[in-house]
Write a structure and sequence with these properties.
The complex is a heterodimer of chains A (325) and B (125). Chain A has seven helices and 17 strands. Chain A is an alpha/beta fold and 325 residues long. Chain A folds into three domains: 82 residues, Roll (Ubiquitin-like (UB roll)), CATH 3.10.20.30; 86 residues, Elongation Factor Tu (Ef-tu), domain 3; 123 residues, Nucleotide-binding domain of ferredoxin-NADP reductase (FNR) module (Rossmann fold, 3-Layer(aba) Sandwich), CATH 3.40.50.80. In chain A, the strands form three sheets. In chain A, strands 9-8-11-6-7-10 form a six-stranded antiparallel sheet. In chain A, strands 15-14-13-12-16-17 form a six-stranded parallel sheet, sandwiched between helices. In chain A, a hairpin with a 5-residue loop joins β8 and β9. Chain A is globular and about 70 Å long. The termini of chain A are far apart. Chain B has a single domain, classed as Orthogonal Bundle (Globin-like). By secondary structure, chain B is an all-alpha fold. Classes of the chains: A alpha/beta (325), B mainly alpha (125). Chains A and B meet through α7 of A and α2 and α3 of B.
Chain lengths: 325, 125
């Protein structure tokens, strides 16, 4: 008989029982719906072993890679330790080793960690300072040997955390980092597929990581990056992106400005309008969307209507915490 | 009978056929101004999974939905004004999707009959 561990509790999975049936029988609250592996309401993650492949049917490929599975169709093949998607695993400590302004509004923060840490470029983590204040930020680099994590942090008006990073955070200071989360990242395979990446403001951070990852994994199809901002302060890494485009024949970069009355050579208009109108159909494309939630949700729908398959759209909406004043 | 007939689900092509149909069907629904407000959900992934569950059922595939489940799941839409005309529109898109995938008319009829059988529960009648 297999055992299922969730949080502090361990239960026995009876023969013929699914993981969901075991947990519900033991009165563990798990959201669920169809109980046949379709509605994905009960989605969980295996923390130790790979779940049975049959229990991952229909899940997004990036979630499969992260050992997400559907407990309603999972007959465990070994003992499992599981968690709901919002349950956090272990966190680690990291020290600030670099802090530099990219624009007057965006700071490049580099942290170094010692403990083992796994992530995919494009995922995000929660950063927590000593008094417990926590915010989510996307990782802007690919996993390397140096044990560093890079972030592009935009200073928000009245942003408690971002202002603190700007004004007070010093080199050498420690931050707590949650495990990496999110399903918006690159996976190898289908190397010839055209990629379209659309980001606003510091949404460039995860996209930059995803592009670096795709190029490092020899993606051969065209990679089109559209980076947009209202004003020039939100556009950054312009030289770096142009250098990358010069170095890689299959990488194309289009910076866009949506604000009125700005003197500049950049393409004018909303970034997702410009990106989506660049091609007749998005059938067969892989799409990555990061940044403002309205842009992300609207573009997700538009890209789908324009022919992109739902499974090929990866998105990360940057929700800003509304703080009562 | 000497041998058993393949099920409707098998004849339609099983899960692969559902996967082929779901994006086409969901696109038609979202593009239809008569009904897309009922399908407007910022979490398109979850919404697409529900469409897949619906198509699996209509294809005669494995499903555990009871009439009560159908009623509960659609109760909030009935409050929003969901009625027969909207159900008809969805039936239209189901048929058009299967036609687009070159499914024989006879099988489309069978799938439509299964979907039709949920009408009362979906509309809370």
């Amino acid at each position: 008989m297999r055992s299922i561990t969730i949080g502090e509790s361990t239960f026995s999975c009876q023969p013929d029982e699914t993981v969901l049936e075991t947990l519900l029988r033991e009165n563990v609250q798990i959201p669920n719906g169809c109980r046949q592996g379709l509605c994905q309401a009960c989605q969980m993650r295996s923390l130790d072993n790979s779940p049975p492949v049959s229990a991952q049917a229909g899940l997004k490929d990036t979630l499969q890679m992260q050992n997400y599975f559907l407990p309603c169709i999972c007959h465990p093949e070994q003992n499992m330790t599981v968690a709901l998607p919002n349950q956090q695993g272990a966190s680690i400590e990291a020290a600030v080793i670099k802090k530099q302004l990219l624009t007057p509004d965006i700071v490049h923060l580099v942290l170094e960690y010692q403990s083992p840490f796994n992530f995919f470029a494009g995922q995000f983590v929660n950063l927590t300072r000593a008094d417990g204040l926590t915010r989510s930020y996307s990782i802007a680099n690919i996993p390397q040997h140096e044990n560093i994590l890079e972030f592009h942090i935009r200073r928000l008006p009245n942003g408690q955390f971002s202002s603190w990073v700007y004004d007070e955070l010093e080199l050498g200071e420690q931050l707590t980092i949650s495990e990496a989360q999110g399903s918006c990242h690159y996976l190898p395979g289908r190397a010839e597929q055209p990629l379209m990446l659309i980001g606003t403001g510091s949404g460039l951070a995860p996209l930059y990581g995803i592009i670096a990852d795709a190029l490092a994994q020899d993606h051969s199809g065209p990679i089109h990056l559209y980076h947009g901002s209202r004003d020039l302060n939100g556009l950054y890494f312009i030289d770096e992106m142009r250098e990358l485009a010069a170095e890689f024949d299959n990488f194309y970069y289009t910076p866009c400005l949506s604000g009125e009355d700005i003197e500049s050579e950049h393409v004018r208009g909303r970034v997702h309008d410009i990106a989506l109108s660049s091609t007749e159909s998005l059938s067969g494309w892989r799409i990555f969307l990061c940044g403002h939630p309205d842009m992300v949700n609207q573009t997700k729908r538009m890209a789908f209507m324009k022919g992109a398959s739902m499974g090929d759209i990866y998105a990360d909406a940057f929700h800003v915490l509304q703080v009562e004043k | 009978m000497s041998e058993s007939q393949p099920s409707l689900y098998e004849q339609l092509g099983g899960e692969a056929a559902v996967n082929a149909a779901v994006d086409i069907f969901y696109r038609k629904v979202l593009a239809d101004h008569r009904i897309n407000r009922f399908f407007d959900n910022s979490d398109m992934e979850k919404q697409a999974a529900k469409q897949k569950a619906f198509l699996t059922m209509a294809f005669g595939g494995p499903n555990n939905y009871s009439g009560t489940d159908m009623r509960t799941a659609h109760a909030h839409l009935v409050k929003m004004g969901l009625n027969d005309s909207h159900f008809d529109a969805v039936m239209e898109h189901l048929g058009a999707t299967l036609t687009e995938l070159n499914v024989p008319a006879e099988l489309i009829g069978k799938a439509a009959a299964i979907a039709e059988s949920t009408r009362k529960d979906v509309l809370g009648k």
